[in-house]
C-alpha cells in the first residue's frame, strides 16, 4: 500500500505492507534511527513521536494508519549546533546515561510543556509514566524537564517583550 | 515484534463499516489499536483483515442530550480526560500513560472488555448505556448486560459500538485504583458514585473475570452502615503472579473505603 507521511516537515511516499509499524517506517524506510524500540509490549515509550501534534508510541501505530498525517521525531527537534531547550536541559542536568530512552523522554516531555509551561515535579513524573529509563532513576530527568520549562518560558517572555 | 500480515482498509462512515463487516465476517475492527496491536505484535491475535474505524467523524466527540451525555465510540481517552463527563475524566487520567490516552478510545476499551480495564467499573457504577449497531439495526444495552466475561462484551461480531450514553448528573463520584507498576492496568479499581437521588452505586474492575457491581457496599452505605470488609468473596476472584485472589479481595475493601470517603 502507498502511504504518504510528512516527517519533520518533509513529505515521504513509500510502498509498505499494512503490518509495517510506524517506527519501522521511520527507522527502516526513512533511515531516521533516532526513534528507538525498547520493548515488544507497547510499554517503554522509547519510540515516542508526535503524530499530528500528539505524543504517540510509534511501535503501536501502523504506518498505514498514519497515512496523510504529519510526524515529528527527535531529529525534528533541534540540531547539534542549535539544541532544543529540552535537549539542552538533558545535557546540562545529566538527564541520561546510556541515552536509549532519551528521544522518547524528550518527545513526551515536549507534549507536556506544550500544555503546561510550568509543571510541578509530580506533574512531570505522572506525565512521564509511559517512558521507562533503566539508568538514571528519573531524578535528573525531572530536573532537565524543569530547566527546559524555565528556558522556554524565558524565551516566550523575551519574544513578547520584543513584540511590544 | 512484527504482526503477521493482514489486509487493511479504512471506513469513513458507520454504514460503510457495517457493509464491509457483513461482506467479510473475518474482518476485525481497529479503533485506537492499543489493545489490538500489542496482541498482534505478540501474535496472540492474527486477524486476516483490519477495518480501521478511527477516522469515522460521526463516532467522535461528546454531546449533551437532556439528562445524558452521548459519547462517540472513537473519542480518545485524552478527550475523555478533558471533558465535562462525570467520573470518566478522573478514570481516564489513570488509564495507561499520555501516549496510550492519545490513541486509545472509550469505545475500544468498553467493547474489548479487558478484565483489567478501568472504564467498565465507572460504566457500571454510573449506569451507562451502550448504543450498538449491526446488520439488524440499532440496540441499546444497559451497563449490567454489557460485560459478559473475560474479553467478552455484548458487542457481537459484525456489530459496531457507536456511542456510550452516560448520565449527566450525579452528586459525587470517585475512582480509586491499585495499578500494575509496569502495564498501568488495574490490579483492582473501585468506582463509587452518589446518584442524583443521593443513592450510592459502586463497582469494581481488575479483580475478577469481568467488572461487577459492588452490591454489598451499596447496601451498607445506603443503609448508613460503614464500608467494613469482606465486600467480595475471594473465591470469585482471579489470582496470578501479581496478586492472589485473597489480596485482590483485600484491595477491593481498601479502595472501596477510600472511594466511599470521597462521595
Ligand atoms: C501500555 C498500555 C497501557 C495500558 N493501560 C491501560 C490501563 O491502565 N487501563 C485501561 O483501561 N486500559 C489500558 N490500556 C488499554 C487501552 O486503554 C486501549 O486503548 C483500550 O483497551 C482499547 O481501545 P482501542 O481504541 O485502542 O481499541 P483497539 O485496540 O483498536 O480494539 C480493541 C478491541 O475492540 C474492538 N473494537 C474497538 N472499537 C470497537 C467498536 N467501536 N465497536 C466494536 N468493536 C470495537 C476491536 O475489534 C478489538 O477487538 C493500555 C494499553 C497499553 C498499550
Ligand atoms: S518500543 Fe516500547 S513502547 Fe514502543
Ligand atoms: S538513560 Fe539509559 S535508559 Fe534512560
UniProtKB/TrEMBL annotation, chain A:
<feature type="domain" description="2Fe-2S ferredoxin-type">
    <location>
        <begin position="1"/>
        <end position="77"/>
    </location>
</feature>
<dbReference type="InterPro" id="IPR012675">
    <property type="entry name" value="Beta-grasp_dom_sf"/>
</dbReference>
<dbReference type="Pfam" id="PF00111">
    <property type="entry name" value="Fer2"/>
</dbReference>
<keyword id="KW-0001">2Fe-2S</keyword>
<dbReference type="InterPro" id="IPR002888">
    <property type="entry name" value="2Fe-2S-bd"/>
</dbReference>
<keyword id="KW-0560">Oxidoreductase</keyword>
<keyword id="KW-0411">Iron-sulfur</keyword>
<dbReference type="InterPro" id="IPR001041">
    <property type="entry name" value="2Fe-2S_ferredoxin-type"/>
</dbReference>
<dbReference type="GO" id="GO:0051537">
    <property type="term" value="F:2 iron, 2 sulfur cluster binding"/>
</dbReference>
<dbReference type="InterPro" id="IPR051452">
    <property type="entry name" value="Diverse_Oxidoreductases"/>
</dbReference>
<dbReference type="InterPro" id="IPR036884">
    <property type="entry name" value="2Fe-2S-bd_dom_sf"/>
</dbReference>
<keyword id="KW-0479">Metal-binding</keyword>
<dbReference type="GO" id="GO:0016491">
    <property type="term" value="F:oxidoreductase activity"/>
</dbReference>
<protein>
    <submittedName>
        <fullName>(2Fe-2S)-binding protein</fullName>
    </submittedName>
</protein>
<dbReference type="InterPro" id="IPR036010">
    <property type="entry name" value="2Fe-2S_ferredoxin-like_sf"/>
</dbReference>
<keyword id="KW-0408">Iron</keyword>
<dbReference type="Pfam" id="PF01799">
    <property type="entry name" value="Fer2_2"/>
</dbReference>
<dbReference type="GO" id="GO:0046872">
    <property type="term" value="F:metal ion binding"/>
</dbReference>
TrEMBL record, chain B:
<keyword id="KW-0560">Oxidoreductase</keyword>
<dbReference type="GO" id="GO:0016491">
    <property type="term" value="F:oxidoreductase activity"/>
</dbReference>
<dbReference type="InterPro" id="IPR016167">
    <property type="entry name" value="FAD-bd_PCMH_sub1"/>
</dbReference>
<keyword id="KW-0285">Flavoprotein</keyword>
<dbReference type="GO" id="GO:0071949">
    <property type="term" value="F:FAD binding"/>
</dbReference>
<dbReference type="InterPro" id="IPR016169">
    <property type="entry name" value="FAD-bd_PCMH_sub2"/>
</dbReference>
<dbReference type="InterPro" id="IPR005107">
    <property type="entry name" value="CO_DH_flav_C"/>
</dbReference>
<dbReference type="InterPro" id="IPR036683">
    <property type="entry name" value="CO_DH_flav_C_dom_sf"/>
</dbReference>
<feature type="domain" description="FAD-binding PCMH-type">
    <location>
        <begin position="1"/>
        <end position="171"/>
    </location>
</feature>
<protein>
    <submittedName>
        <fullName>Molybdopterin dehydrogenase</fullName>
    </submittedName>
</protein>
<dbReference type="InterPro" id="IPR002346">
    <property type="entry name" value="Mopterin_DH_FAD-bd"/>
</dbReference>
<dbReference type="InterPro" id="IPR016166">
    <property type="entry name" value="FAD-bd_PCMH"/>
</dbReference>
<dbReference type="Pfam" id="PF00941">
    <property type="entry name" value="FAD_binding_5"/>
</dbReference>
<dbReference type="InterPro" id="IPR036318">
    <property type="entry name" value="FAD-bd_PCMH-like_sf"/>
</dbReference>
<keyword id="KW-0274">FAD</keyword>
<dbReference type="InterPro" id="IPR051312">
    <property type="entry name" value="Diverse_Substr_Oxidored"/>
</dbReference>
Amino acid at each position: 500500500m502507498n502511504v504518504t507521511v510528512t516527517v519533520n516537515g518533509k513529505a515521504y511516499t513509500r510502498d509498505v505492507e499494512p503490518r509495517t509499524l510506524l517506527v519501522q517506517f521511520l527507522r527502516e524506510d526513512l533511515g531516521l534511527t533516532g526513534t528507538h524500540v525498547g520493548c515488544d509490549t507497547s510499554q517503554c515509550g522509547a519510540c515516542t513521536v508526535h503524530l499530528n501534534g500528539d505524543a504517540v508510541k510509534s511501535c503501536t501505530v501502523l504506518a498505514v494508519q498514519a497515512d496523510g498525517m504529519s510526524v515529528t521525531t527527535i531529529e525534528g527537534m533541534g540540531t547539534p549546533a542549535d539544541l532544543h531547550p529540552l535537549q539542552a536541559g538533558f545535557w546540562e542536568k545529566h538527564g541520561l546515561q546510556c541515552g536509549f530512552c532519551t528521544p522518547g523522554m524528550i518527545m513526551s516531555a515536549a507534549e507536556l510543556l506544550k500544555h503546561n509551561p510550568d509543571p510541578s515535579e509530580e506533574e512531570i513524573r505522572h506525565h512521564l509514566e509511559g517512558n521507562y529509563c533503566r539508568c538514571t532513576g528519573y531524578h535528573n530527568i525531572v530536573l532537565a524537564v524543569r530547566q527546559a520549562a524555565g528556558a522556554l518560558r524565558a524565551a516566550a517572555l523575551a519574544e513578547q517583550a520584543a513584540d511590544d | 515484534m512484527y504482526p503477521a500480515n493482514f489486509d487493511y482498509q479504512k471506513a469513513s462512515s458507520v454504514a460503510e463499516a457495517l457493509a464491509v463487516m457483513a461482506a467479510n465476517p473475518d474482518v476485525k475492527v481497529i479503533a485506537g489499536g492499543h489493545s489490538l496491536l500489542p496482541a498482534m505484535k505478540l501474535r496472540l491475535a492474527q486477524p486476516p483483515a483490519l477495518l480501521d474505524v478511527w477516522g469515522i467523524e460521526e463516532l467522535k466527540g461528546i454531546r449533551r442530550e437532556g439528562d445524558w451525555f452521548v459519547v462517540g465510540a472513537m473519542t480518545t481517552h485524552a478527550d475523555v480526560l478533558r471533558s465535562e463527563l462525570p467520573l470518566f475524566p478522573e478514570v481516564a487520567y489513570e488509564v495507561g500513560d499520555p501516549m496510550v490516552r492519545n490513541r486509545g478510545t472509550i469505545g475500544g476499551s468498553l467493547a474489548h472488555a479487558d478484565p483489567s480495564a478501568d472504564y467498565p467499573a465507572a460504566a457500571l457504577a454510573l449506569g451507562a448505556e451502550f448504543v450498538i449497531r449491526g446488520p439488524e439495526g440499532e440496540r441499546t444495552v444497559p451497563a449490567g448486560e454489557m460485560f459478559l466475561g473475560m474479553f467478552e462484551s455484548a458487542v457481537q461480531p459484525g456489530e459496531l459500538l457507536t456511542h456510550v450514553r452516560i448520565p449527566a448528573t450525579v452528586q459525587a463520584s470517585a475512582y480509586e485504583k491499585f495499578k500494575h507498576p509496569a502495564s498501568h492496568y488495574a490490579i483492582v479499581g473501585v468506582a463509587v458514585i452518589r446518584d442524583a437521588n443521593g443513592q450510592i452505586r459502586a463497582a469494581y474492575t481488575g479483580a475478577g473475570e469481568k467488572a461487577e457491581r459492588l452490591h454489598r457496599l451499596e447496601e451498607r452505605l445506603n443503609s448508613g452502615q460503614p464500608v467494613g470488609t469482606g465486600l467480595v468473596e475471594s473465591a470469585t476472584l482471579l489470582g496470578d503472579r501479581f496478586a492472589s485472589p485473597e489480596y485482590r479481595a483485600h484491595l477491593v475493601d481498601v479502595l472501596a473505603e477510600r472511594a466511599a470517603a470521597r462521595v
